[in-house]
Design a protein that fits this description.
This protein has 115 residues and is of the alpha/beta class. The chain has one domain (7-112): HAD superfamily/HAD-like (Rossmann fold). It is 28% helix and 20% strand. The chain has 3 helices and 8 strands. It has helices at 29-40, 53-65, 78-84; strands at 7-10, 17-18, 26-27, 44-47, 72-73, 95-97, 102-104, 110-112. It has a 4-stranded parallel β-sheet, covered by helices on one side. Strands 2-3 form a two-stranded antiparallel ribbon. Strands 7-8 form a two-stranded antiparallel ribbon. The longest helix is centred in the middle third of the chain and has 13 residues, at 53-65. This is Hydrolase. Keywords: Plasmid. It comes from Butyrivibrio proteoclasticus (strain ATCC 51982 / DSM 14932 / B316) (Clostridium proteoclasticum). InterPro entries: HAD-like_sf, HAD_sf, Phage_SP01_Orf1.
Length: 115
């Protein structure tokens, strides 16, 4: 699928938020600034986390409080579901950002084994 935007899926615990589940912690300001910039450029953001229920509601509110809004949460974008005719459990995106694979360094550069 060709789009004029990137789809970026990002983890919450240990990535956006330096937290110890289910608690909330300090923000990863560099990553938050990167995501806000990407969203402003027209790219789509998906919050991709293992959190559910109240812990997920707390995380999404925390993100909103830090200026990050998502086009989907733990789900594919509607246009992806329409394109493939189903909603796969795997999130379709151009970039996954997760503390276990890729992170944003203090200079705003992507680092990690997946690059």
């Amino acid at each position: 699928m060709e789009t004029d935007y990137k789809i970026i899926a990002v983890d919450f615990d240990g990535t956006l938020c330096y937290s110890n589940w289910p608690d909330l912690g300090a923000p990863n300001k560099t990553l938050i600034e990167y995501l806000i910039k990407e969203k402003a450029a027209g790219n789509k953001l998906i919050l991709w986390t293992c959190r559910a229920g109240q812990a997920l509601m707390d995380a999404t509110r925390w993100c909103e409080d830090h200026g990050v809004s998502f086009d989907a949460v733990n789900d594919n974008l509607p246009e992806i579901v329409e394109l493939y005719g189903n909603n796969s459990r795997k999130i379709t995106c151009d970039l996954y950002i997760d503390d276990r694979s890729v992170y944003i360094d203090a200079m705003g550069n992507l680092q990690g084994a997946a690059l």
